[in-house]
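Q: Convert this sequence to structure tokens.
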Amino acid sequence: MLSWVLGNRKKKSNRKRPSYADAKRIAASGSVAERKELASHNTLEPELLYYLADDDAPEVRKEIAKNDGAPLQADQILARDPIDEVRTELAYKIARLIPTLTDTENQRLTEMALAVLEVLANDELPDVRAIVAEEIKRLENVPKHIITKLAHDAEAIVSAPILEYSPLLSELELVQIIAGGVQGAALIAVARRIGIGEAVSSAIVDQDDKPSMLELLKNQTARISEKAMQVIGMKAPDMDDMHRPLVERSNLSVHTMKRIATFVSAALVERLIEQNDLTDAVSKELRQSIRERIEAGDLKASDKPKEPPDERARKLFDAGKLDDGVVKEAIETGDITFVPPALSLLSGIEIEICKRVLMGDSGKGVVSLAWKAGLTMATAEMIERRVAQVPARSLVATPSDGEFPLTDSDMEWYLAYFDE
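A:
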């Protein structure tokens, strides 16, 4: 591992490189193109790579920034390079190195690498800081103050990965960050975090931010206090997209379920009854609430119970009427549970695999499934956003020509990946 300090960090390349004498000549007086080519050799002597890290040509320094064979002394120079692209390339490389720093005997190496990381974590360019944040978001072998710095970053593209994934952030820190006014994508990232406790959930609810409350409800690993659920229940009647995630929550109290039954659709009340171990008396009371709302005219015809989604999809499929338009309409009307069985029938892929794709946070996977089902790319993007809830960074957008942006072989590969 000490070779990282001296250079030649990567497995030696099979590319032919100049002799040492020729390399010295090129480094000192070669053309920009020659120096750039020389800087790309990861088996070049460390002292020459270090020399090229101070080259006048940005394109040469960029090659050194990318070069896994460059010594850390060269990286320390490049971490403060005036050219954004140089620092960006260096951020990718250093972030790849950090997870490998586990040999305690190489303390000097670790200190040098982390020093470069810290400079990049404080870079003036958000894109550089975002690269660092994305690459170290799950690591435990990075200095805590770097994580804290990135978690408080004003740019969501920097703070969000850390807030959602870093194991180094405590519940108290998360509550303090929320209280400090974090909002938008950063607050949503906290709401998506696995295993957050009641204090964090309550802090999110206190922000009165609909998107983050919606993500919190979808996060089945989040513990939400009864008091926080009551607050959500007061806001949810006028927020239709919260109804299903609210019903799908586990460990709802009977009091909360009775409250939910006063504003969600009849189908969702049935879903509520199905997935909870309720007494006959409570089930009867929930259904009675629906009957009273129907009699009072509070429920539209479309709110009344429907056939199970898999049965509806099968009937349409057998009749030759299950197509892109039907799937699109289901999404637009919030009939989300209809989509998985529809995709399964149209694609010929087992329902469990379809669900795995839809839950995999992979835009490319979802697009591949929609393609296999014979749907349009526009509908595929709707499924990404409104059914699979694919994170923004993984979304596959519809090109201007409306065609699928992936090759057929690529999409077959993604489907095969989820089938493993």
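The radius of gyration is 27 Å.
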